[in-house]
């Protein structure tokens, strides 16, 4: 979706009102990769650049695409031990482009999205990247949510119930039906655990939702894509990171994902490294991993939904994406059935 000259002029006015220095006319490039909110790299004459996040034009679902949530979290974490992009401006009312948008300082980092992006990495560099991801997640979960002003960001209790309700509601809202979805939902409902911890949870954590140092893939410059963040059980973040290691992610992204590389740590090792980094045990791991697969299936179904209504540029009859949805649901059922 290209931006008009009028939209760029309006954005420049927003930036100036936020105290930014804008040198010359703005130019924008749509950043590929995201399948939910859209990201634009906007620059002036070369002196400055910004990342602009906005929801898709069509196919939005309730509680998704929340750029205001992203902005609030980055405001709270700025200056903390968790690296984030500097928040610049937030237009909640859509006065600039007709939809809410959030603006951040551009972070010149490396995005490891496809297998091609990491093809020249050594085993040591791959391992250093995994370690950096785990250590960054551990620091996120150790953040004092009250101390950074996020104590009222979301409910603290009932995380698993809330998540299961939210993602099952997404299926209903999209008018989607899958025989395995209802089955997995029922099994998860029968195994709901008691919440034992509260932390700021990213909700969509994996390698391509961080920006890495160009020279050192073991250094995270910024964690991005906070639209699913909330307060909840930190084990859920580890489970999502582990579930994304499933090969079905390739079908969702439409490419060979960097995160499904067999040379990276598998789900069990990610859990083990996190436990070592935090000195805690990942309690109720089986449930959270099953819930993670259910969630990833719903996210993939959301992409399919936007295809059906013309809000995604992938073909509407996408057999690979449909197969990934089934694969995630099957993985969730398998992990629960193997630990009855």
Detailed description of the structure:
The protein is an alpha+beta fold and 340 residues long. It folds into 2 domains: 5-105, Phosphorylase Kinase, domain 1, CATH 3.30.200.20; 115-337, Aminoglycoside 3'-phosphotransferase, Chain: A, domain 2 (Alpha-Beta Complex). 41% of the residues lie in helices and 12% in strands. It is built from 10 helices and 9 strands. The protein has helices at residues 5-17, 67-77, 123-141, 159-173, 179-189, 235-243, 248-253, 267-278, 285-308, 319-337, and strands at 27-31, 38-43, 49-54, 87-91, 101-105, 199-201, 210-212, 220-223, 230-232. The strands form 3 sheets. A 5-stranded antiparallel sheet has the order 1-2-3-5-4, with helices on both faces. Strands 6-9 form a two-stranded antiparallel ribbon. It has a two-stranded antiparallel ribbon with strand order 7-8. A hairpin with a 5-residue loop joins strand 2 and strand 3 (49-54). Helix 5 (179-189) runs antiparallel to helix 9 (285-308). The model has no long low-confidence stretch (mean pLDDT 92).
Proportion of strand residues: 5-15%
Specify the CATH homologous superfamily of the largest domain.
Aminoglycoside phosphotransferase (APH), C-terminal lobe
Helix-strand category: alpha+beta
Q: What is the H/E order?
A: HEEEHEEHHHEEEEHHHHH
Main sheet overview: 5 strands, antiparallel
> Rg to the nearest angstrom?
20 Å
Low-confidence stretches: none
Widest β-sheet, arrangement of strands:
1-2-3-5-4
The helicity comes to 40-55%
Q: Note the gap between the termini.
A: 48 Å
Total strands: the figure is 9
Highest-level CATH class of the largest domain:
Alpha Beta
């Amino acid at each position: 979706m290209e931006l008009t000259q009028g939209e760029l002029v309006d954005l420049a006015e927003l930036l100036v009102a936020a105290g930014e220095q804008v040198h010359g006319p703005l130019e924008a490039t749509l950043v590929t990769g995201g399948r939910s909110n859209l990201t634009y790299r906007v620059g002036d004459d070369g002196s400055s650049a910004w990342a602009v996040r906005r929801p898709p034009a069509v196919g939005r679902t309730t509680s998704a695409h929340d750029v205001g949530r992203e902005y609030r979290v980055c405001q709270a974490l700025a200056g903390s031990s968790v690296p984030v992009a500097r928040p610049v401006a937030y237009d909640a009312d859509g006065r600039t482009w007709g939809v809410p948008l959030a603006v951040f300082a551009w972070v010149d980092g490396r995005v490891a999205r496809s297998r091609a992006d990491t093809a020249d990495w050594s085993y040591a560099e791959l391992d250093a990247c995994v370690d950096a991801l785990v250590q960054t997640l551990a620091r996120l979960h150790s953040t004092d949510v009250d101390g950074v002003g996020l104590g009222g960001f979301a409910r603290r209790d009932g995380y698993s119930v809330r998540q299961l309700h939210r993602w099952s509601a997404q299926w209903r809202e999209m008018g989607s039906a899958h025989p395995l979805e209802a089955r997995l939902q029922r099994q998860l409902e029968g195994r709901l655990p008691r919440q034992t911890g509260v932390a700021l949870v990213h909700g969509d954590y994996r390698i391509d939702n961080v920006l890495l140092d160009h020279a050192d893939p073991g250094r995270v410059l910024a964690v991005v894509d906070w639209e699913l963040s909330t307060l909840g059980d930190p084990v859920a973040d580890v489970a999502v990171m582990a579930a994304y290691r499933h090969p079905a992610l390739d079908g969702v992204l439409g490419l060979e994902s960097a995160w499904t590389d067999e040379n990276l740590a598998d789900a069990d090792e990610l859990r083990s490294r996190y436990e070592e980094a935090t000195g805690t045990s990942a309690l109720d791991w089986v449930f959270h991993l099953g819930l993670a697969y259910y969630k990833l299936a719903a996210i993939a179904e959301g992409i399919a939904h936007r295809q059906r209504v013309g809000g995604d540029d992938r073909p509407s009859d996408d057999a690979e994406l449909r197969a990934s949805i089934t694969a995630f649901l099957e993985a969730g059922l398998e992990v629960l059935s193997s630990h009855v």
